[in-house]
Protein backbone atom coordinates (compact mmCIF):
# COMPACT_ATOMS: atom_id res chain seq x y z
CA UNK A 1 0.00 0.00 0.00
CA UNK A 2 2.76 2.45 1.06
CA UNK A 3 4.60 1.59 -2.14
CA UNK A 4 1.51 2.34 -4.19
CA UNK A 5 1.14 5.77 -2.54
CA UNK A 6 4.80 6.50 -3.21
CA UNK A 7 4.32 5.59 -6.87
CA UNK A 8 1.28 7.83 -7.18
CA UNK A 9 3.14 10.70 -5.51
CA UNK A 10 5.97 10.35 -7.98
CA UNK A 11 3.51 10.36 -10.87
CA UNK A 12 1.84 13.47 -9.47
CA UNK A 13 5.21 15.24 -9.17
CA UNK A 14 5.98 14.32 -12.78
CA UNK A 15 2.65 15.68 -13.99
CA UNK A 16 3.15 18.87 -11.95
CA UNK A 17 6.53 19.37 -13.57
CA UNK A 18 5.00 18.77 -16.97
CA UNK A 19 2.29 21.37 -16.25
CA UNK A 20 4.90 23.89 -15.07
CA UNK A 21 6.93 23.33 -18.24
CA UNK A 22 3.84 23.79 -20.42
CA UNK A 23 2.90 26.96 -18.50
CA UNK A 24 6.38 28.27 -19.07
CA UNK A 25 6.19 27.50 -22.77
CA UNK A 26 2.78 29.20 -23.00
CA UNK A 27 4.14 32.32 -21.28
CA UNK A 28 7.05 32.41 -23.72
CA UNK A 29 4.72 31.97 -26.68
CA UNK A 30 2.46 34.78 -25.39
CA UNK A 31 5.52 36.98 -24.97
CA UNK A 32 6.83 36.36 -28.46
CA UNK A 33 3.35 36.87 -29.92
CA UNK A 34 2.99 40.18 -28.09
CA UNK A 35 6.46 41.21 -29.26
CA UNK A 36 5.68 40.31 -32.85
CA UNK A 37 2.81 42.81 -32.90
CA UNK A 38 4.45 45.82 -31.37
CA UNK A 39 2.15 48.85 -31.48
CA UNK A 40 3.25 51.84 -33.61
CA UNK A 41 2.34 55.32 -32.44
CA UNK A 42 3.82 57.04 -35.46
CA UNK A 43 4.61 56.27 -39.07
CA UNK A 44 8.00 54.61 -39.54
CA UNK A 45 9.75 53.72 -42.80
CA UNK A 46 9.19 50.05 -43.63
CA UNK A 47 11.66 47.66 -45.22
CA UNK A 48 10.63 46.71 -48.76
CA UNK A 49 8.38 43.67 -48.90
CA UNK A 50 10.04 40.93 -50.91
CA UNK A 51 7.38 38.23 -50.70
CA UNK A 52 7.98 34.58 -51.48
CA UNK A 53 10.02 33.28 -54.39
CA UNK A 54 8.35 29.87 -54.10
CA UNK A 55 5.73 28.18 -51.96
CA UNK A 56 6.92 25.90 -49.14
CA UNK A 57 5.20 22.57 -48.46
CA UNK A 58 3.48 24.21 -45.51
CA UNK A 59 2.24 27.04 -47.76
CA UNK A 60 0.94 24.48 -50.24
CA UNK A 61 -1.00 22.70 -47.52
CA UNK A 62 -2.29 25.89 -45.86
CA UNK A 63 -3.49 27.53 -49.08
CA UNK A 64 -4.32 24.28 -50.95
CA UNK A 65 -8.05 24.95 -51.30
CA UNK A 66 -7.52 28.33 -52.96
CA UNK A 67 -4.44 27.18 -54.93
CA UNK A 68 -6.78 24.77 -56.71
CA UNK A 69 -8.64 27.69 -58.26
CA UNK A 70 -7.39 28.39 -61.79
CA UNK A 71 -8.26 32.07 -61.09
CA UNK A 72 -5.60 32.15 -58.37
CA UNK A 73 -3.08 29.31 -58.76
CA UNK A 74 0.54 29.34 -57.57
CA UNK A 75 1.38 32.64 -59.28
CA UNK A 76 -1.62 34.35 -57.68
CA UNK A 77 -0.60 33.06 -54.25
CA UNK A 78 2.97 34.30 -54.73
CA UNK A 79 1.57 37.69 -55.82
CA UNK A 80 -0.44 37.86 -52.59
CA UNK A 81 2.71 37.29 -50.55
CA UNK A 82 4.32 40.29 -52.29
CA UNK A 83 1.41 42.65 -51.59
CA UNK A 84 1.00 45.07 -48.70
CA UNK A 85 -2.42 46.40 -47.75
CA UNK A 86 -3.22 49.31 -45.46
CA UNK A 87 -6.55 49.04 -43.63
CA UNK A 88 -7.84 52.39 -42.38
CA UNK A 89 -10.15 51.62 -39.45
CA UNK A 90 -10.29 48.33 -37.52
CA UNK A 91 -14.04 48.47 -36.87
CA UNK A 92 -17.04 46.74 -38.45
CA UNK A 93 -15.55 46.65 -41.96
CA UNK A 94 -11.86 46.49 -41.07
CA UNK A 95 -12.16 43.39 -38.85
CA UNK A 96 -13.59 40.94 -41.41
CA UNK A 97 -11.40 42.46 -44.10
CA UNK A 98 -8.20 41.97 -42.08
CA UNK A 99 -9.28 38.45 -41.12
CA UNK A 100 -9.78 37.24 -44.70
CA UNK A 101 -6.69 38.99 -46.05
CA UNK A 102 -4.53 37.38 -43.37
CA UNK A 103 -6.14 33.98 -43.88
CA UNK A 104 -5.51 34.20 -47.61
CA UNK A 105 -1.80 34.97 -47.14
CA UNK A 106 -1.35 38.65 -48.00
CA UNK A 107 2.30 39.59 -47.33
CA UNK A 108 1.93 42.66 -45.11
CA UNK A 109 -1.06 44.20 -43.35
CA UNK A 110 -1.04 47.71 -41.91
CA UNK A 111 -3.85 48.02 -39.34
CA UNK A 112 -4.66 51.59 -38.45
CA UNK A 113 -7.09 52.89 -35.82
CA UNK A 114 -6.84 55.59 -33.16
CA UNK A 115 -9.63 54.13 -31.04
CA UNK A 116 -9.95 51.55 -28.27
CA UNK A 117 -12.29 48.55 -28.12
CA UNK A 118 -15.67 49.17 -26.45
CA UNK A 119 -18.44 46.77 -25.43
CA UNK A 120 -20.80 48.21 -28.09
CA UNK A 121 -18.24 47.30 -30.79
CA UNK A 122 -18.31 43.57 -30.18
CA UNK A 123 -21.50 42.73 -32.10
CA UNK A 124 -19.77 43.53 -35.37
CA UNK A 125 -16.05 44.14 -34.84
CA UNK A 126 -15.38 40.44 -34.72
CA UNK A 127 -11.61 40.39 -34.22
CA UNK A 128 -12.02 41.95 -30.77
CA UNK A 129 -13.20 39.97 -27.73
CA UNK A 130 -14.48 40.84 -24.27
CA UNK A 131 -10.96 40.70 -22.86
CA UNK A 132 -9.82 43.36 -25.39
CA UNK A 133 -12.10 46.10 -24.04
CA UNK A 134 -10.02 49.22 -23.47
CA UNK A 135 -7.19 47.92 -25.66
CA UNK A 136 -6.11 49.74 -28.84
CA UNK A 137 -8.21 48.34 -31.70
CA UNK A 138 -5.13 48.17 -33.94
CA UNK A 139 -3.31 45.97 -31.43
CA UNK A 140 -6.30 43.79 -30.68
CA UNK A 141 -6.92 43.23 -34.41
CA UNK A 142 -3.23 42.53 -35.07
CA UNK A 143 -3.02 39.97 -32.26
CA UNK A 144 -6.10 38.16 -33.57
CA UNK A 145 -4.77 38.18 -37.11
CA UNK A 146 -1.36 36.86 -35.99
CA UNK A 147 -3.08 34.00 -34.20
CA UNK A 148 -4.78 33.13 -37.45
CA UNK A 149 -1.72 33.41 -39.69
CA UNK A 150 1.67 34.10 -38.09
CA UNK A 151 3.37 34.25 -41.50
CA UNK A 152 1.61 37.52 -42.36
CA UNK A 153 3.55 40.60 -41.29
CA UNK A 154 1.21 42.78 -39.23
CA UNK A 155 1.85 46.42 -38.40
CA UNK A 156 -0.64 47.94 -35.97
CA UNK A 157 -0.78 51.77 -35.91
CA UNK A 158 -2.50 53.33 -32.93
CA UNK A 159 -2.91 56.75 -34.45
CA UNK A 160 -5.33 58.94 -36.36
CA UNK A 161 -4.82 59.20 -40.11
CA UNK A 162 -4.26 62.90 -40.72
CA UNK A 163 -3.02 65.21 -43.50
CA UNK A 164 0.36 65.18 -41.70
CA UNK A 165 0.93 61.41 -41.81
CA UNK A 166 -1.32 60.06 -44.59
CA UNK A 167 1.06 60.38 -47.54
CA UNK A 168 4.07 58.93 -45.76
CA UNK A 169 1.95 56.01 -44.63
CA UNK A 170 0.01 55.29 -47.82
CA UNK A 171 3.10 55.53 -50.04
CA UNK A 172 4.47 52.46 -48.24
CA UNK A 173 1.53 50.20 -49.17
CA UNK A 174 0.33 48.73 -52.48
CA UNK A 175 -3.41 48.82 -51.86
CA UNK A 176 -5.47 50.90 -49.42
CA UNK A 177 -8.85 49.92 -47.93
CA UNK A 178 -11.04 52.62 -46.45
CA UNK A 179 -12.96 51.15 -43.51
CA UNK A 180 -13.46 54.45 -41.71
CA UNK A 181 -16.74 55.99 -40.68
CA UNK A 182 -16.49 59.71 -41.35
CA UNK A 183 -16.50 62.02 -44.35
CA UNK A 184 -13.24 63.97 -43.71
CA UNK A 185 -11.30 60.69 -43.50
CA UNK A 186 -12.87 59.50 -46.78
CA UNK A 187 -11.66 62.63 -48.62
CA UNK A 188 -8.26 62.41 -46.92
CA UNK A 189 -7.74 58.74 -47.86
CA UNK A 190 -8.94 59.44 -51.40
CA UNK A 191 -6.63 62.40 -51.99
CA UNK A 192 -3.65 60.58 -50.46
CA UNK A 193 -4.34 57.57 -52.73
CA UNK A 194 -4.63 59.75 -55.84
CA UNK A 195 -1.43 61.65 -54.97
CA UNK A 196 0.40 58.34 -54.34
CA UNK A 197 -1.19 56.44 -57.23
CA UNK A 198 -2.72 53.68 -55.08
CA UNK A 199 -6.00 51.84 -55.68
CA UNK A 200 -8.56 52.47 -52.94
CA UNK A 201 -11.06 49.76 -52.02
CA UNK A 202 -13.76 51.64 -50.18
CA UNK A 203 -16.92 50.46 -48.42
CA UNK A 204 -19.52 51.67 -45.97
CA UNK A 205 -22.36 50.11 -44.00
CA UNK A 206 -25.24 51.59 -42.07
CA UNK A 207 -28.45 50.14 -40.70
CA UNK A 208 -29.36 47.39 -43.22
CA UNK A 209 -27.43 48.72 -46.22
CA UNK A 210 -23.91 48.65 -47.57
CA UNK A 211 -21.93 50.12 -50.47
CA UNK A 212 -18.62 49.34 -52.15
CA UNK A 213 -16.50 50.88 -54.91
CA UNK A 214 -12.86 50.69 -55.99
CA UNK A 215 -11.53 54.21 -56.62
CA UNK A 216 -8.52 55.47 -58.52
CA UNK A 217 -8.15 52.14 -60.26
CA UNK A 218 -7.18 51.60 -63.92
CA UNK A 219 -8.24 55.07 -65.04
CA UNK A 220 -11.55 54.97 -63.15
CA UNK A 221 -12.96 57.81 -61.05
CA UNK A 222 -11.79 58.85 -57.61
CA UNK A 223 -14.09 59.63 -54.66
CA UNK A 224 -13.95 63.36 -55.47
CA UNK A 225 -14.92 62.75 -59.11
CA UNK A 226 -18.23 61.42 -57.80
CA UNK A 227 -18.62 63.60 -54.71
CA UNK A 228 -16.87 66.92 -55.44
CA UNK A 229 -18.68 68.61 -52.55
CA UNK A 230 -19.04 67.06 -49.07
CA UNK A 231 -22.57 66.55 -47.75
CA UNK A 232 -23.82 69.00 -45.08
CA UNK A 233 -22.57 67.57 -41.72
CA UNK A 234 -26.08 67.43 -40.22
CA UNK A 235 -27.23 65.04 -42.98
CA UNK A 236 -24.56 62.42 -42.17
CA UNK A 237 -25.64 59.55 -39.92
CA UNK A 238 -23.19 57.17 -38.24
CA UNK A 239 -23.59 53.72 -36.68
CA UNK A 240 -23.89 55.05 -33.13
CA UNK A 241 -26.85 57.23 -34.23
CA UNK A 242 -28.48 55.15 -36.95
CA UNK A 243 -27.58 51.64 -35.80
CA UNK A 244 -26.25 48.79 -37.89
CA UNK A 245 -26.87 45.05 -38.00
CA UNK A 246 -23.42 43.55 -37.37
CA UNK A 247 -23.51 41.16 -40.28
CA UNK A 248 -24.00 44.01 -42.80
CA UNK A 249 -20.49 45.51 -42.33
CA UNK A 250 -19.40 41.85 -42.08
CA UNK A 251 -20.63 41.21 -45.62
CA UNK A 252 -19.24 44.49 -46.96
CA UNK A 253 -15.85 43.94 -45.26
CA UNK A 254 -15.69 40.48 -46.85
CA UNK A 255 -16.57 42.08 -50.19
CA UNK A 256 -13.66 44.49 -49.72
CA UNK A 257 -11.41 41.50 -48.98
CA UNK A 258 -12.56 39.89 -52.22
CA UNK A 259 -11.71 42.95 -54.33
CA UNK A 260 -8.35 43.45 -52.57
CA UNK A 261 -7.47 39.79 -53.16
CA UNK A 262 -8.45 40.02 -56.83
CA UNK A 263 -6.28 43.11 -57.32
CA UNK A 264 -3.37 41.72 -55.28
CA UNK A 265 -3.33 38.31 -56.97
CA UNK A 266 -3.45 39.81 -60.45
CA UNK A 267 -7.01 38.98 -61.47
CA UNK A 268 -8.09 42.61 -61.20
CA UNK A 269 -11.28 44.16 -59.88
CA UNK A 270 -14.43 44.87 -61.84
CA UNK A 271 -15.61 47.47 -59.31
CA UNK A 272 -13.44 50.31 -60.65
CA UNK A 273 -16.34 52.04 -62.28
CA UNK A 274 -19.32 50.66 -60.52
CA UNK A 275 -21.01 51.01 -57.19
CA UNK A 276 -22.19 47.82 -55.49
CA UNK A 277 -25.21 48.45 -53.30
CA UNK A 278 -26.30 45.81 -50.80
CA UNK A 279 -29.80 45.80 -49.36
CA UNK A 280 -29.86 43.39 -46.42
CA UNK A 281 -33.63 43.70 -45.98
CA UNK A 282 -34.38 42.36 -49.47
CA UNK A 283 -31.18 40.27 -49.65
CA UNK A 284 -30.29 42.05 -52.89
CA UNK A 285 -27.16 43.40 -54.54
CA UNK A 286 -27.52 46.10 -57.17
CA UNK A 287 -24.77 47.33 -59.48
CA UNK A 288 -24.76 50.95 -60.55
CA UNK A 289 -22.50 52.13 -63.35
CA UNK A 290 -20.62 55.20 -62.13
CA UNK A 291 -19.74 58.25 -64.17
CA UNK A 292 -16.16 58.14 -65.41
CA UNK A 293 -13.16 60.02 -64.07
CA UNK A 294 -13.88 63.75 -64.35
CA UNK A 295 -11.50 66.09 -66.18
CA UNK A 296 -12.68 68.79 -63.76
CA UNK A 297 -11.89 66.75 -60.61
CA UNK A 298 -10.05 68.84 -58.00
CA UNK A 299 -7.51 66.11 -57.29
CA UNK A 300 -7.33 63.68 -60.23
CA UNK A 301 -8.53 66.03 -63.00
CA UNK A 302 -6.57 67.84 -65.70
CA UNK A 303 -5.83 70.97 -63.66
CA UNK A 304 -5.96 69.80 -60.06
CA UNK A 305 -6.29 72.41 -57.33
CA UNK A 306 -5.54 69.84 -54.63
CA UNK A 307 -1.88 69.00 -55.12
CA UNK A 308 -1.12 68.28 -51.47
CA UNK A 309 -3.25 67.21 -48.53
CA UNK A 310 -5.46 69.93 -47.06
CA UNK A 311 -7.52 70.51 -43.90
CA UNK A 312 -10.32 67.97 -44.40
CA UNK A 313 -12.20 68.83 -41.23
CA UNK A 314 -12.51 72.42 -42.42
CA UNK A 315 -13.45 71.27 -45.95
CA UNK A 316 -16.23 69.00 -44.63
CA UNK A 317 -17.28 71.15 -41.67
CA UNK A 318 -17.10 68.14 -39.33
CA UNK A 319 -14.57 66.25 -37.23
CA UNK A 320 -12.57 63.30 -38.57
CA UNK A 321 -13.94 61.13 -35.78
CA UNK A 322 -17.55 60.31 -35.07
CA UNK A 323 -16.99 60.61 -31.33
CA UNK A 324 -17.67 64.24 -30.56
CA UNK A 325 -20.17 65.53 -33.04
CA UNK A 326 -21.71 68.15 -30.77
CA UNK A 327 -23.97 70.74 -32.35
CA UNK A 328 -24.21 74.15 -30.78
CA UNK A 329 -27.40 75.63 -32.16
CA UNK A 330 -28.83 77.41 -29.12
CA UNK A 331 -27.97 80.23 -26.73
CA UNK A 332 -27.05 79.57 -23.08
CA UNK A 333 -30.50 80.77 -22.01
CA UNK A 334 -32.15 78.12 -24.15
CA UNK A 335 -30.33 75.24 -22.45
CA UNK A 336 -30.21 73.62 -19.02
CA UNK A 337 -27.83 70.99 -17.64
CA UNK A 338 -28.81 67.52 -16.50
CA UNK A 339 -28.12 68.69 -12.93
CA UNK A 340 -30.64 71.55 -13.41
CA UNK A 341 -33.16 69.06 -14.72
CA UNK A 342 -32.60 66.73 -11.75
CA UNK A 343 -33.46 69.61 -9.38
CA UNK A 344 -36.60 70.39 -11.40
CA UNK A 345 -37.58 66.72 -11.24
CA UNK A 346 -36.96 66.52 -7.48
CA UNK A 347 -38.90 69.71 -6.77
CA UNK A 348 -41.94 68.24 -8.60
CA UNK A 349 -42.33 71.54 -10.43
CA UNK A 350 -44.96 71.05 -13.18
CA UNK A 351 -43.26 70.74 -16.56
CA UNK A 352 -43.31 68.62 -19.68
CA UNK A 353 -40.36 66.42 -20.57
CA UNK A 354 -40.34 65.90 -24.33
CA UNK A 355 -38.22 63.03 -25.60
CA UNK A 356 -37.55 63.49 -29.34
CA UNK A 357 -35.77 60.18 -30.04
CA UNK A 358 -37.21 57.60 -32.44
CA UNK A 359 -39.58 55.12 -30.78
CA UNK A 360 -37.08 52.26 -31.16
CA UNK A 361 -34.67 54.13 -28.86
CA UNK A 362 -37.39 55.06 -26.35
CA UNK A 363 -38.12 51.32 -26.10
CA UNK A 364 -34.51 50.77 -24.98
CA UNK A 365 -34.77 53.27 -22.10
CA UNK A 366 -36.50 56.50 -21.14
CA UNK A 367 -37.05 58.82 -18.20
CA UNK A 368 -40.38 58.50 -16.37
CA UNK A 369 -43.40 60.50 -17.56
CA UNK A 370 -41.71 61.80 -20.68
CA UNK A 371 -43.78 62.39 -23.81
CA UNK A 372 -42.23 60.86 -26.91
CA UNK A 373 -42.55 62.78 -30.17
CA UNK A 374 -39.72 61.90 -32.57
CA UNK A 375 -37.84 64.82 -34.12
CA UNK A 376 -38.99 63.66 -37.58
CA UNK A 377 -42.64 64.10 -36.55
CA UNK A 378 -41.94 67.63 -35.35
CA UNK A 379 -40.11 68.38 -38.60
CA UNK A 380 -43.06 67.11 -40.59
CA UNK A 381 -45.51 68.91 -38.27
CA UNK A 382 -47.42 65.61 -37.82
CA UNK A 383 -50.90 66.67 -36.80
CA UNK A 384 -51.66 63.88 -34.30
CA UNK A 385 -48.36 64.47 -32.54
CA UNK A 386 -48.88 68.22 -32.24
CA UNK A 387 -52.36 67.50 -30.87
CA UNK A 388 -50.78 65.23 -28.23
CA UNK A 389 -48.36 67.96 -27.27
CA UNK A 390 -51.15 70.54 -26.96
CA UNK A 391 -53.17 68.17 -24.76
CA UNK A 392 -50.27 67.47 -22.40
CA UNK A 393 -49.45 71.17 -22.08
CA UNK A 394 -53.05 72.07 -21.30
CA UNK A 395 -53.33 69.27 -18.69
CA UNK A 396 -50.23 70.63 -16.96
CA UNK A 397 -51.54 74.18 -17.16
CA UNK A 398 -54.23 73.25 -14.62
CA UNK A 399 -51.50 72.59 -12.08
CA UNK A 400 -49.96 76.04 -12.61
CA UNK A 401 -50.84 79.22 -10.75
CA UNK A 402 -52.63 82.00 -12.70
CA UNK A 403 -52.17 81.97 -16.45
CA UNK A 404 -48.68 80.48 -16.37
CA UNK A 405 -47.61 78.02 -19.05
CA UNK A 406 -45.69 74.89 -18.03
CA UNK A 407 -42.12 74.85 -19.38
CA UNK A 408 -41.11 72.17 -21.88
CA UNK A 409 -37.70 70.50 -21.53
CA UNK A 410 -36.48 68.59 -24.56
CA UNK A 411 -34.21 65.58 -24.34
CA UNK A 412 -32.61 63.12 -26.82
CA UNK A 413 -29.66 60.73 -26.77
CA UNK A 414 -26.74 63.16 -26.95
CA UNK A 415 -28.23 66.64 -27.07
CA UNK A 416 -28.10 67.33 -30.81
CA UNK A 417 -31.63 66.45 -31.97
CA UNK A 418 -33.08 68.10 -28.86
CA UNK A 419 -31.54 71.42 -29.94
CA UNK A 420 -33.09 71.06 -33.38
CA UNK A 421 -36.45 70.30 -31.73
CA UNK A 422 -36.22 73.46 -29.57
CA UNK A 423 -35.63 75.51 -32.71
CA UNK A 424 -38.63 73.94 -34.45
CA UNK A 425 -40.94 74.40 -31.46
CA UNK A 426 -39.90 78.03 -31.07
CA UNK A 427 -40.77 78.69 -34.70
CA UNK A 428 -44.22 77.13 -34.41
CA UNK A 429 -47.19 79.44 -34.50
CA UNK A 430 -49.76 79.71 -31.70
CA UNK A 431 -52.22 77.68 -33.76
CA UNK A 432 -49.80 74.75 -33.86
CA UNK A 433 -48.80 74.71 -30.17
CA UNK A 434 -49.45 77.11 -27.29
CA UNK A 435 -46.70 79.60 -26.57
CA UNK A 436 -44.43 77.80 -24.14
CA UNK A 437 -40.91 78.14 -22.84
CA UNK A 438 -38.83 75.42 -24.49
CA UNK A 439 -35.37 74.46 -23.27
CA UNK A 440 -32.85 71.87 -24.31
CA UNK A 441 -31.29 69.46 -21.80
CA UNK A 442 -27.56 69.61 -22.63
CA UNK A 443 -25.91 66.31 -23.48
CA UNK A 444 -29.19 64.36 -23.32
CA UNK A 445 -29.60 60.93 -21.77
CA UNK A 446 -25.91 60.16 -22.20
CA UNK A 447 -25.07 63.07 -19.88
CA UNK A 448 -27.87 61.90 -17.55
CA UNK A 449 -26.39 58.40 -17.34
CA UNK A 450 -22.88 59.77 -16.74
CA UNK A 451 -23.68 62.63 -14.37
CA UNK A 452 -26.90 61.78 -12.53
CA UNK A 453 -27.89 58.14 -12.67
CA UNK A 454 -25.10 55.63 -13.27
CA UNK A 455 -27.67 52.81 -13.43
CA UNK A 456 -29.38 54.40 -16.44
CA UNK A 457 -28.51 52.40 -19.61
CA UNK A 458 -26.15 53.85 -22.20
CA UNK A 459 -26.25 52.72 -25.81
N1 LIG B 1 -8.94 59.18 -39.37
C1 LIG B 1 -8.97 57.99 -38.79
N2 LIG B 1 -7.80 57.42 -38.36
C2 LIG B 1 -7.81 56.20 -37.76
N3 LIG B 1 -8.93 55.48 -37.53
C3 LIG B 1 -10.11 56.00 -37.93
C4 LIG B 1 -10.18 57.28 -38.58
N4 LIG B 1 -11.48 57.54 -38.84
C5 LIG B 1 -12.18 56.47 -38.40
N5 LIG B 1 -11.38 55.55 -37.85
C6 LIG B 1 -11.76 54.26 -37.25
O1 LIG B 1 -12.58 53.57 -38.17
C7 LIG B 1 -13.40 52.65 -37.46
C8 LIG B 1 -14.77 52.67 -38.09
O2 LIG B 1 -15.47 51.54 -37.65
P1 LIG B 1 -16.93 51.52 -37.02
O3 LIG B 1 -17.76 52.60 -37.59
O4 LIG B 1 -17.42 50.13 -37.14
O5 LIG B 1 -16.53 51.76 -35.50
P2 LIG B 1 -16.85 52.76 -34.28
O6 LIG B 1 -16.50 54.16 -34.64
O7 LIG B 1 -16.16 52.14 -33.15
O8 LIG B 1 -18.41 52.60 -34.09
P3 LIG B 1 -19.50 53.40 -33.22
O9 LIG B 1 -19.96 54.49 -34.16
O10 LIG B 1 -20.54 52.38 -32.95
O11 LIG B 1 -18.82 53.94 -32.00
C9 LIG B 1 -13.41 53.07 -36.01
O12 LIG B 1 -12.76 52.09 -35.22
C10 LIG B 1 -12.64 54.40 -36.01
O13 LIG B 1 -11.87 54.57 -34.84
ZN1 LIG C 1 -11.19 62.46 -59.19
Automatic annotation (TrEMBL):
GO molecular function: ATP binding; metal ion binding; molybdopterin-synthase adenylyltransferase activity; molybdopterin-synthase sulfurtransferase activity; thiosulfate-cyanide sulfurtransferase activity; URM1 activating enzyme activity
Residues bound to Zn(2+): 222, 225, 297, 300
Keyword Transcription regulation carried by entry: no
Localization annotation: Cytoplasm, Cytosol
The protein's Enzyme Commission number: 2.7.7.80, 2.8.1.11
Pathway(s) the chain acts in: tRNA modification; 5-methoxycarbonylmethyl-2-thiouridine-tRNA biosynthesis; Cofactor biosynthesis; molybdopterin biosynthesis
Function field: Plays a central role in 2-thiolation of mcm(5)S(2)U at tRNA wobble positions of cytosolic tRNA(Lys), tRNA(Glu) and tRNA(Gln). Also essential during biosynthesis of the molybdenum cofactor. Acts by mediating the C-terminal thiocarboxylation of sulfur carriers URM1 and MOCS2A. Its N-terminus first activates URM1 and MOCS2A as acyl-adenylates (-COAMP), then the persulfide sulfur on the catalytic cysteine is transferred to URM1 and MOCS2A to form thiocarboxylation (-COSH) of their C-terminus.
Protein family: In the N-terminal section; belongs to the HesA/MoeB/ThiF family. UBA4 subfamily.
Name of the protein in question: Adenylyltransferase and sulfurtransferase MOCS3
Species of origin: Oreochromis niloticus
Amino acid sequence: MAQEVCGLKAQLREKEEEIAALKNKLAQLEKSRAASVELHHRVMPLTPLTGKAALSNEDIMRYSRQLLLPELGVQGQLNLSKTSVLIVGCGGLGCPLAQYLAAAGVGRLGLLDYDEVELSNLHRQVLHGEENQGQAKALSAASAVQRLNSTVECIPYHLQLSPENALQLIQQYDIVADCSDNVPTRYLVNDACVLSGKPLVSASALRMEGQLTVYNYHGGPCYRCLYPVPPPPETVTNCSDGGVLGVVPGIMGCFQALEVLKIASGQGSSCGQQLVMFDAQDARFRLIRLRPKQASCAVCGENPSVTRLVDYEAFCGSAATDKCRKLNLLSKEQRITVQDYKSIMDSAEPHLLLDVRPLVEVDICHLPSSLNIPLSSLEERKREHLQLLRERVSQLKHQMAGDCQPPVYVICKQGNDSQKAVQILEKMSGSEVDRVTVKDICGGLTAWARGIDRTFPQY
